[in-house]
Amino acid sequence: MDNTPLLNRLHHTASASLILLILLCVLWELVLAPLRPGGSWMVIKALPLLAPLAGTLRRNVYTMQWASMMILMYFTEGVVRAWSERGPSQWLAFAEITLSLLYFLSAIFFLRPYKREAKRLTQQAIQKAAENHEH
Q1: 0.85 exceeded by the pTM?
Q2: Among residues 53, 93, 101, 58, which one has the least CA distance to residue 77?
Q3: How far is the C-alpha of 30 from the C-alpha of 74, rounded, in Å?
Q4: Which residue, of 9, 39, 69, 99, has the fewest CB within 10 Å?
């Protein structure tokens, strides 16, 4: 797949939003607005975000596919906390919503040409198999 300027921008946006979401989760629960003074165990919510980090940075299509689904858990947490909390936690929740949506959308649009090419190759293989079967 060609690295067009748009694909490069989408990849950089996905990578940056994932890194920023990791930092947000850690800082939120340890420093900015922890559930308990001094930090809380909620900081472990950042750990699953480390799993797709290397694959996202390397443009691994498979990793970005499953990570785009996993990131929706963080979107959901952000929506719940934005609705239920006040003060700094509410603003941090809005940041979580923004970063998770940024990753989701940039990953989906980054993956779009790869999915189209895979579909095209599959259709070619089916057509070739059908032609070979007829002969």
Answers
A1: yes
A2: 93
A3: 17
A4: 69
For 4-30, give the DSSP string.
-HHHHHHHHHHHHHHHHHHHHHHHIII
Residue 118 CA from chain centroid, whole number: 21
What gap in Å lies between CA 52 and CA 72, rounded to an integer?
14
> Of 55, 67, 53, which Cα lies nearest the Cα of 23?
53
1 band by pLDDT with thresholds 50, 70 and 90: low
> First and final CA of the chain: distance in angstroms?
34
Task: Convert the pLDDT of each residue in 124-133 to its tens digit.
Answer: 888 888 777 7
Residue 24 to residue 20: CA distance in whole angstroms: 6
Contacts of 104 (CB under 8 A, 6+ apart): 68, 71, 72, 75
Measuring CA to CA, which residue among 6, 97, 111 is closest to residue 56? Answer: 111
